[in-house]
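Translate sequence into structure tokens.
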Amino acid sequence: MNRKEVFFLIFRYIILITLGTFNLYIFYLIFTPLTVIPSFLALKLLFDANLISLTILNPGAVIFIKGFYATIIPACVAGAAYYFLLILNLTTPMGLKKRIGSILFLFSTFLFLNILRIIIFAAIISEDFQYFNQAHTFTWYFGSTLLVILIWFTNVKIFKIKDIPVYTDIKSIWKDVFRKE
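Result follows.
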């Protein structure tokens, strides 16, 4: 590895550690309004919903829809999923243009699908679906994990990523440290 590659490797991991140190606050600060406002606007168009509250410092919102209160809590915003997608991106060696395109794809795709999920569940609860809790719990535990995995592998295919997160970095460092000269 040359000096530039070493610098960017260290820089990538410092970014991840720094963002993770502050309890994902930056992800919630950015993605709470980006999730809540489009969700609310769509629900307002579809069901004449009302936004009861939106707080940025304590992420979350309450939307009143057809006699029900839908609370969008931090878990609905899914800051940890954005962080995980960023971890996968930043622990994979790639050029800057590809990295930026990849991050934009990962975040925008997850944001869109997350908003769609919120709208669908708000519509389901407003129709008093008797299996709402089971469907919500199932998608909470399994659907969200599957969604993140599918988005990552779609990203890998679109951006033709050949390297493996973390492993490729370790392999490269190992090779440099123990290479025979």
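Note: The radius of gyration is 20 Å.
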